[in-house]
Amino acid sequence: MDYENTQDGALVRRVQAGDQAAFRDLVERYQSKVFSIIHGIVRQRNDVEDIAQQVFAKVYFSLAKFDFRSSLITWIYKITVNECYDYLRKRKVRKLVYESDLSEDEVRRVENTEPSPGRNPLIDAVLAKRDYIVKLLSRVSEEERMLLMMKEVEGHSVEELAEMTGMNENTIKVKLFRARQKLVKASQRLDRLPSVAAN
Amino acid sequence: MHAVIEENLEELLASPSACGRAALDHLVSCKACAMELERMRQIALLFPALRNESPIDPAPYFAARVMMSIERRPSSFWASLLESALGTTMGTVFFRRVAFASLLVLASLGGYLASTDSEFRAGVTPELIMAAERDAPASEYGRNQDRELLMVTIATFNPDETE
After folding, report:
1. Residue B10: which of A41, A60, A158 has the nearest Cβ?
2. How is chain B split into domains, by residue range?
3. Residue B129 contacts residue B153 (beta carbons within 8 Å)
4. Which residue, A40, A141, B58, B72, shows the most beta carbons closer than 10 Å to its own?
């Protein structure tokens, strides 16, 4: 598909020519989608807007390199998912630094905290699933992560993915197959770890 | 995993009933493929947990805040460094001009040093010493002694000492 001659293509061309109002239109067009993707992955309402701002700043500064080989939303989707993983990585580092300041007793107390009686076990199960799949997806490449999420979370078909990414259907199938194999291997490794298996 | 399953993997995960007979028959006979497919299916079932069921709307004026954050953000490290140092958005252009001027000064200094060095070396060659001795008036020791003195001068000539 020729993405250069679409409505998005015209918008991108205007931004590339330095039209700030066009970029504002682009933000308004995609902000809801970006918020939704971020919230789906990080689930921290307070941080969603900060991450979304980072996403659009990256979009703005990289838009000069956008070559219309894929659709604009595919490209923004990839940047958004990567930004979420950057955020999760930084949060993990911050948590490790914080925990290193605690005494052994304090760490044990935090780890053994009983779940509060008011918590909904169904919500806990969904959160555990989400954490697990987020962990698995951190073991595949950025492109594989994007393809898997667009297929399984957004519900796009192989044909749609081929059209959106500018790749042919067979390439998409092969990439998805390899990504799924990596997820299986990662899950086998994770299940061998006692802390994850307990969850 | 065998090719027949690999080729039909997406169909098998989405709706096995719509998949071709060959793939389904293979799954009955190949336990390894059936097991790996089942693992992939289990993992695929985890993805809906990433769906955002309760959409959150961007806060009002989000686009305006994005535009403000972009205007505040410098485009590169060096530009930001120069911008903070010079208080100008033309930091990159200024940096390029300074670098170009420095290169010009270096090139002209290098050229000057090379030319003065070669002139100095050319002034103390053995040929010049011989010519100077030839043009000099005869000394009180006579022509033969002068020649011996000239030979000693040439024999003891060391170009390194002249540097």
Report:
1. A158
2. 3-50, 74-122, 126-162
3. yes
4. A40
